Amino acid sequence: AKGRIVGANKDDFHLKNVDLARYAKIADADYADLVVVKDGEQTLTKDQDYTVSYSNHVNSGDNTAVATVTGIGNYSGEKKLNFTINKAPLTVKANDHSIGHGDAAGNNGVTYTGFVNGETASELDGTLSYAYKTASDGSGTSYTTASPVGTYYIIPGGLTSNNYAITFEAGTLS
Q1: Of 4, 103, 109, 119, which alpha carbon lies 20 to 30 A from 35's?
Q2: Which one-letter DSSP state was computed for residue 64?
Q3: Is the pTM of this model over 0.70?
Q4: CB contact at 8 A, 174 and 96
Q5: Residue ranges in 8-59 assigned as alpha helix (H)
Q6: Residues 63-109: pLDDT tens digits?
Q7: What distance in Å separates the CA atoms of residue 84 and residue 21, rounded to the nearest whole number?
Q8: In DSSP terms, which residues pair with 51 in a beta bridge?
């Protein structure tokens, strides 16, 4: 019997419950097993019963990505499913840095954790900036050369991205 992927039962065709919190420029192969196609209770086999192609899956954000399932072999028809690509998590942590009493505040750069697909900081917008405060959340008193000896925090900021959800973490200035 020849089946149709575009059947009336929406449960026969769906996107797996997969966290798409990875940002795009993802090759089609990275979506492996994202789509599940069923004929009743039987799960169909990709590339034997159907093929999947993707479009508009280059970046995260407001655009809607599309998975297109096309029947092959004993199955015919085509079905399009929309999905959203969420921003990938990215942590920007200030590296710890030591200075002498009365020295100007300084930093030792940042460490990035979470880039995907070989990307680097060049993909980010804005300009990396630093604040030097007595509290790691950026509140408190700012460090100056007249500040007493103690522990201060290097708080990075200033970067944005359409494809990454950036979390900034403080380093220690001592």
Answers
A1: 119
A2: P
A3: no
A4: yes
A5: none
A6: 677 888 888 888 888 888 777 777 889 999 999 999 998 999 988 99
A7: 9
A8: 70
